[in-house]
Amino acid sequence: MTSERVYLDWNATTPLRTEARAAMVAALELTGNPSSIHAEGRAARGLVEQARTAVAGAVGAAPRDVVFTSGGTEAITLALTPGLRIGSKPAERLLVSAVEHAAVLSGGRFAPAQVEVVEVTREGVLNFDHLRQLLASGPPALLSLMLANNETGALQPVAEAAEIVHAAGGLVHVDAIQAFGKVPFQIKGLGADLLSLSAHKIGGPKGVGALVFGSDVQGAEPVLRGGGQELGRRAGTENVAGIAGFGAAVAATMPTIIADMKRVESLRNRLEANLRQTAGSVIFCESVARLPNTTLFAVPGLRAETAVIGFDLAGVAVSSGSACSSGKVQPSHVLQAMGCGPELAQSAIRISLGWSSSESDIDACLNAWKRLAGNLTKRDHETVPERF
User: Is 324 a catalytic residue?
Assistant: First the structure.
């Protein structure tokens, strides 16, 4: 094992930014409850509102439209509420793409019978024909569509989908959790009515997220009821330290996002150029727009869990393209939806970079991969599809 670890699993979570840590430590020193009107309470409230303003500004929303939650999953659950409406027509069903995060595929507070799955192409992009077909087959719908896929990095044509859904009288929730801090966007530009975010994907703490309202959406019933926090949309005393860390991470990320990701993309491109030299290698979604930091690749015959362990022993943290539940490794639902065969899906490895990733990190990753590929790969090229 190398003496220094190399972290290349940034899509799972990011290191805590120094700015976020400092903001959290300062917040932990405060005594007041942000709902109290005395000086101590006002100081805590000030940190919450400062963070709310930072998050709102990053996505082009008004601060009053930002609701802080316990994380991305709660934000998504709050968004996926039957009866959401703009005007008089409520959304009576939920449409989700086949490659969504489990928090979306679970349907939020919609009943299973109210959830319909929209197909994707072999490149993991929403199938517009199927979307139109589903929209025409029933009452107004809420479409939940991720901006960037957490496994492949593929970017979805959210604005075009939103235009179609709005024309059919529906609403759109965008899961922007994986895209936030990696590609610039504005909520109005996406055409989103609701937008979910998570702090730990951009250098903030785990356990904090936000749901952002982008239009005059009504009917968003709170998941937690109690006090009147967050304008009655999310009860419970605010996690002041976590929210302060979220705001500080946003403030540190957004000014340099374009420059940071341009540099990261050059590292990713160098990585992929070397990975292609392995016979039989497949890089998923490389022909469509992707996050600049993400590579999902596979070599048939090399099991992903074996490769991940091998990387780990070499001091490099990566992840598989499989979902692990209750100790059982199953093929990625994302790759299955794209029509990927089980052997290739079980070989998928995700490497994701971040703002501090370096050339030496790529060197370490490639050195580890050369050893793994040389020792473990079965050279059975007939199972490899022409492209993905």
Answer: yes
